[in-house]
Amino acid sequence: MAEGVNVEVTPPNVDENATIRLSNTSLEVKFADFHPMLAKVDLIRKQSKYQLRLIKNEWGQAQIMTMLTGIVAFLLGSISGDLFTGGDPKTTGLEGLASLSGFAFFQLILSGILWIWFFVQLSVNFPVMRGHIINVIIIWSSIFLSQVVLHVNSPNFPIGAKLGDALGGAVLTAVGFFFAYFFWKAVTETRDLHVQEKHVHTDVRVMEEAMEEHSLFAWSFIVCTWLFMMLINGWSGAQFIAERVVTSYGMLTLHVISGILTVYLLMHMLWFPQRLLGEGVKVRTRAALSADADLLITGVVLASEGECPSCGESVPISLNDNGETVVDCELDDCNSRGVAGSICEGCDKPYPNRFTCKGCGVNSPVSDYIPDTEAW
User: Fold this and answer.
1) If we measure between CA atoms, which residue out of 284, 45, 255 comes closest to residue 144?
2) DSSP letters of 190-219?
3) Left, alpha or beta for 8 (phi > 0: left; psi -120 to 50: alpha)?
4) Can you give the residue ranges of every domain in the chain?
């Protein structure tokens, strides 16, 4: 009698991140069941849950160390011995710096160095958002300084504040929100362009699903929360310093907590667009994209859509900016587009090098579907 043979089957390795999709994320309890107006809250909860799952699986040592660097830089600049001893409110400017103790001065210098290193690491970890690091610094500085200006003549701002005294702070706040709006606009419009180029499909429903999968609703909420936290952080810090006699450290506690949250929200805000759009994308508004297009040499025309060389029917084949032929993925359930012959990021299958026209049935290389256009 033959002995039984135990066969051990090893399941294939499956990338866990590939299975984490917004469409696969669900909520156990939906607030919309209690009232339809809470549907937007459920949308934020669902997308936030999806993003936090991605962070748990994708953030590594580099991201954690960057966040800790920002938090330590903030704490070194926010907490010192002078806060507890009272300091000298009459000593300001360079005279105030000269009167610092050796440890306090070292703490100040170290905080500045860590802030510089923090923003350098942000540009390294999130290269897609590198061009907006300066915008982030302008936004943060404007909003924080606005609270300092508002507290100069009104230590208990907004209590006892006069409209004329608030002009400078209002202008700085407006500058911060202005840059924040264009930052948000650049990301959302780049997302729209990304979906139109990488996930274009003849079926409108597939395009709508791709747009839902690339939703930035919760991310937009995070941007607003980041701005609010900066306002709270600047207000609480200025409020605490403006008090001549400190009787409570509640404002300092609020300043520290809001500052830590601001650092995290900033990293989350820069990370998710890169995760959504992929490497090599330039985040910019449509106006900036159009301006770059106007700088190109006029007369060179690239076909936006191909056509069958036999019957002339339009086909979903085009050229990208590098002159490479872009086609749809062959799989029906994959709505990606890419360069012919390259590997599809959605299903790991190669993009086809040949295409069959649905109008006449002719099968030709994809390059034959790009019409010859003369450049004058």
Assistant:
1) 255
2) HHHHHHHHHS--SSHHHHHHHHHHT--HHH
3) beta
4) 128-295, 306-369
Question: CA 77 to CA 140: how far, in whole Å?
Answer: 15
Q: What percent of the chain has pLDDT over 70?
A: 78
Contact 180, 146 (CB under 8 A): no
Q: Which residues contact 24 (CB under 8 A, 6 or more apart)?
A: none
Contact (Cβ atoms closer than 8 angstroms) between residue 283 and residue 270:
no
CA–CA distance, 91 with 97 (Å, rounded to integer): 9
Task: Please provide residue 245's backbone torsions phi and psi, each rounded to the nearest 5 degrees.
Answer: -120, 115
For tokens 């900033």, the residue is: 266
Residues 6+ apart with CB under 8 A from 182: 135, 285
How many angstroms separate the CA atoms of 86 and 97, rounded?
A: 16
Contact 199, 207 (CB under 8 A): yes
Helix (H) or strand (E) holding 255: helix 250-277
Cα angle for residues 232, 67, 126 (degrees, 5° grid): 105
Residue 343, helix vs strand vs coil:
strand
Q: Render pLDDT for 180-214 as a digit per residue (tens, 0 to 9).
A: 999 999 898 888 887 777 776 677 777 777 778 88
Residue 281 structure tokens: 């994308």
Q: What pLDDT was estimated at residue 346?
A: 66
What is the predicted pLDDT for the residue at 375?
Answer: 35
Name the burial class of residue 124, with classes exposed (0-12), middle (13-18) and buried (19+) by CB atoms within 10 angstroms of its CB.
exposed
Would you say 261 and 229 are in contact if contact means Cβ atoms under 8 Å apart?
yes
Q: Where are the alpha helices (DSSP H) in 12-60?
A: 16-19, 39-58
**Cα-based angle 86, 91, 95 (whole degrees, multiple of 5):** 130
Distance CA 364, CA 308 (A): 9
* Per-residue pLDDT, 138: 93
Name the token pair of 167: 């002009």
Query: Which segments of the chain have a pLDDT < 70?
Result: 1-19, 82-101, 200-201, 244-246, 279-282, 284-305, 333, 335, 346, 372-376
- Residue 12 has a pLDDT of 46
pLDDT of residue 374: 38
- Note the pLDDT of residue 18: 54
Q: Give the integer Cα–Cα distance in Å for 281 and 147.
A: 35
